């Protein structure tokens, strides 16, 4: 299975040729296994074309009725990359290689690599849109906000300050994350209600926008970071270490890449949320989003 491949060495060893990759992608339902001729409606045959395949409908041994690319009707239909190159990009992106590392290994421009990363993050955005609320009956959900300094196109002196609001369910490890225009209660509370089950217990710092959360959830406990890391309330040890660790994981690739475009930030957040929520099944979830419907 493609999702079980976690290195270029594994991919090359198991699927050394373009035709091997074609069969792999067919088995994953990422390429069509059959094709109909657009002219006559007959079934087409899969034929060799150079190092790859194409679909052909033949009138006779010497005359074609029509032909189709092996990529037709698939996620790959508009790419000029070979299927081997495209699959390498997917594998390396899933393993969190940088754009420059992917470009060098696959032999493509960094612009092409960035375009592909954008395509793959769009799948993450669609996947994220299917998620329900985190938390549940007495689940502890830690919430917090953080500031990201994004750069236009990842370069230059000018920066944008983007506030991100999010939370993590201690029991399941599931997260949510949204960019917000400000940190007012009128913005944060509706987002919290939309993303966290009301039966949850919420842990936060003492930011004033959280002052009325007991009205919307089973309970709400706070920790004052000016004086303590953990607030002991009976048997509860109230802290936000989990969500603060989440912010560290989020910011790490941004620091390595010297920021990103503010316009692309939402898609990066979606990728992060999917990686956090899908865990070892992340690459499979992306593959599922690419399957031919």
From TrEMBL:
Coiled coil: none annotated. InterPro entries: IS1016-like_transposase, Tnp_ISXO2-like. Pfam families: DDE_Tnp_IS1595. It comes from the Eukaryota. Residues 133-277 form the ISXO2-like transposase domain. NCBIfam families: transpos_IS1595. This is ISXO2-like transposase domain-containing protein.
């Amino acid at each position: 299975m493609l999702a079980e491949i976690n290195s270029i060495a594994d991919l090359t060893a198991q699927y050394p040729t373009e035709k091997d990759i074609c069969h792999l992608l067919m088995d994953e339902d990422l390429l069509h296994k059959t094709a109909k001729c657009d002219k006559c409606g007959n079934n087409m045959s899969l034929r060799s074309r150079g190092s790859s395949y194409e679909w052909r409908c033949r009138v006779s041994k010497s005359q074609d009725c029509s032909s189709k690319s092996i990529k037709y009707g698939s996620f790959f239909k508009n790419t000029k990359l070979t299927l081997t190159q495209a699959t390498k990009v997917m594998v390396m992106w899933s393993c969190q290689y940088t754009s420059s590392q992917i470009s060098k290994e696959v032999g493509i421009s960094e612009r092409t690599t960035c375009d592909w990363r954008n395509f793959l993050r769009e799948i993450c955005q669609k996947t994220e849109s299917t998620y329900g609320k985190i938390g549940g009956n007495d689940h502890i959900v830690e919430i917090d906000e953080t500031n990201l300094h994004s750069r236009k196109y990842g370069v230059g002196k000018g920066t944008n300050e983007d506030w991100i609001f999010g939370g993590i369910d201690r029991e399941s490890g599931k997260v949510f994350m949204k960019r917000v225009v400000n940190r007012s209660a009128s913005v944060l509370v509706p987002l919290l209600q939309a993303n966290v089950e009301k039966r949850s217990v919420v842990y936060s710092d003492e930011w004033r926008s959280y002052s009325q959360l007991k009205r919307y959830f089973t309970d709400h406990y706070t920790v004052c970071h000016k004086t303590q890391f953990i607030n002991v309330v009976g048997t509860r040890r109230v802290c936000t270490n989990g969500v603060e660790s989440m912010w560290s994981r989020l910011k790490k690739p941004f620091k390595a890449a010297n920021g990103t475009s503010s316009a692309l930030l939402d898609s990066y957040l979606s990728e992060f949320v999917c990686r956090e929520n899908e865990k070892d099944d992340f690459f499979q979830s992306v593959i599922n989003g690419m399957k031919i419907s």
